[in-house]
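Protocol step 4 of 6: structure prediction from sequence.
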Amino acid sequence: MIPVLVGFGKNYFNNFGPATRSHLNHNQEDGDDTITTVSSYQFTEESPAPPWEQEDDPLIDVHCTTASTYFLTRSGKIYNCGTIHGIVRPSLTKISIALPLKCVQLATGRQFCLARMEGGLAVCAWGAGHFGQLGLSPFDENDNTSSSSSSPPSFVHHPTVVEGLLPHVVGAPISSVAAGYWHSMALTQEGKVFMWGCNRNGQCAKKPTVKDPPTILRPQLVTFDNTSSSKSVQSSSNTKNIRINKIVAGRSHSVALDDGGQCYCWGANHYGQCGILTRRRVGGVTTPKHVEALAKVRIVDISAGDVHTLALTGGGRVFGWGGGFDGQLGSGFIYNMNPKPKLVSDLDFVAIEAGREWKSKQKEKNPQQQTDQSLQNNYSKRATGSTSVQDLVNTPRIISVTAKGNSSFAVSSTGHVYAWGCNDVGNLGLPKPDHATLTYSDPVQVLSKTPSQRQFQTYSFDSSHNVALPQRLDSLRHLDITKLGVASTFIWCLGTMRQENGNSHNNIVGRTLYEVEEAKRQKTTRVPHERILHSLETASFATTIPNSSNPTDVTSEAGKQQIKKQPTTDPLESNDRDEAGYADRKRLDKEGTLVLDMNSKTETKMDIHFHKKTSDSHDSVSSPKLASTESFHKENDVSQTSSTVDKISSVLSSPSGKKKRLFSPKKIVKGIVRLASVGSLKSEPATSTDEIDAPKNKR
C-alpha cells in the first residue's frame, strides 16, 4: 500500500519541503453540522511526487529536527528537506552514505542526525557538532577519558562513521541510537549504554567538574546504580545485571528502560522530569535513578520532551511527569512541575468503557435491591472473567507515546492519534478556537491551591493555546497511523488508507473520558426557560411519585424516613458530574420539600401540600400537576390553565430588555401549584380551600 504522509504546523524553514498546503475536516461526530477545518501539508498531485512513490520504495519512518525533516525508506535511502545549520533545502534531497550497508534507523537532535546501519556494525553522524554531540573527535583506544585537547567539529556536511561505536570498541553491535538537543545515546545488543555530547546538567551520566569542560567528545559507558530502587526491585535484580533495552533523550535529560520494565532517568531535574521528588538545579542528576513510583507496573514504551517524560504500561495506560505548564501532562490541570508520575486517565479506554458498562447495568436495577453482597458478586465475576470482560477485549489501547518540546502524542491500537500540550502554531493537528473563549491559566496560582476542576483548552502568559486533555485527531480518521515525526513547531503523521473490510474492530474509536462527559452534558443540558415551557405543555413537573404498589404517606414521620432512604441520584455518577451541575437535578431536603434546580447557579424550593382522601383505605399522595383528571373535564378550568400558560410563555419569550422580572421561577411554580390545587379541590371542604388561599392573603 502507498504510504500517506500528512503534516501539521508552520512551514517556517521549508521543513515541509515541496508538500502542498491543504485543509482537512475535523469534526468530533459525523452528524455534526458545523464543519471545522485544520490546516495541513500533503504530497498531492499539485506537488511533485516524492521519490518513495516513484521508485516503489515505500516510506517506513520520519524524523524531525527543529527546522528540517529526514525520511527513511525500506531500502535504506535517506531524504532531507528544510533548514539545518543555515543550509536550506526546499526540495527533497538524497543523503548518501559511503558504506556498503543500508540504514535501518534514524535519530535526530536539534541540528544533527544519527544513522544506524544494518546489523549495528556502524553508526554515522552529521550536522552541527559544537557540543561534541556527533562523537567524531579523534579516537585513541589508549585514552579513554572524557576530555580531549582537540576541539569538536562545528559542522559536518556528510555522514561520517563514529569510530567510538564500532563493535570491536564497545564489545557488541549497536541495537539502537537516540539524540537529544545537544547529546547522543547508543545502546548495544548486550544492554549497555554509551553517551556523549553536552553534559551541563549531567545528562551524559557524568558529574561535571571545574577542571573538565561540560562536554564529552567520545562515547562513554554509563553505569547504572540500583541502590535507590525499591526493595522489590533490589531483590529481583542486581546492579551488575541491569540490562537496558530502550533509550530516549530529551532536551537535557535521558531516560532508559530495562528488560524488567523498570524506568531510569538522569540529567536536568528543574521541573521534576526525572521523577525524583528532590529538586536539583545545579549539576542535575548525574547517576541514573530508578523511578520508584512506577516500580509495581511494567513499562513498555518511554519518551522524553523538553521538560516532561511519558511512560506507557503493558496494559495501555499512560503516565506523565515533569513540567506541565502547557498542559503536556494531559491531566487537565496546569502544573509548574509535578515530579510524581500521574495517570492520563482520559487515555485509559478499557477503564472508561468498563465504568460506563457497569453504570448502565446498575441503572437497570432497583437501587434498593443493590446490596453489598450483590456488589461483591459483580466484582468477583469481573475478576474471574465474565462475559462483560470478554466484551472489552476489542477496546482500543495505546501502543506508543511520543513527547517533544512541550507537546505529547499517543497512537492507539486502531491507528488513531491523540494529542495534547502546546498548540500555538497548530502543531498538534487540532483546530484553534477563538482566543476570547479560552480560560487563562497561571501555573503559579494553581500551585497555591489544590486544583478542583479539569480544564480542556487554556492559554497562559507565554502560550496562546494549550490543550490540557488528550483529544483525538479526527482529521486523520481516514488513515491508519503507524509513525509520528515530531518537532517543537510541526509534526508528520505516516500511515495508510483504512480499508473497509467489514471488520468492526477497525472502526472502533477509543473515546476519551472528556469526550464521554461532554456528550453526556450536551444530552442533559437544556435552556432554563425551555425546560419550564416543556413542563407546562406536558404537565409533568419534577415531583417524586411514590410507587403505586407500595404507597406511602410522606406527611407522616414514617413516610419521610422512607423517602430519605431512597437515593435520588446514582451514587456512582455523583462524582462524575460537573461542579456547575447537570440540568433538572432533583433531591429532597431534610424538611421534605422538593428542590428544583432551575439553572446551574440558583435553586428554587417549593413546598408541596399533600392531602388525604377519606374514601381510600390507605393513605396516598395527590400529585401536584396542573390539575387532576376530573378538573380537566371542566371548561372553565381548561381555559384558565391555558391562559396562564400563554401569559407565562409570552413573558419568557419576550426580549431580555422587556422582562422586568414579573414572574420569577419561584413565583411561577407557586402559582401553578396553587392553580392546580384550587382546580382539584373545588369539591373539598372549605377548610382546605382556606388553607390554600392563606398564602394569597398574606401576599
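Step 5 (inspection) to follow. Residues 98-316 form a domain with the Methylamine Dehydrogenase; Chain H fold (CATH 2.130.10.30).
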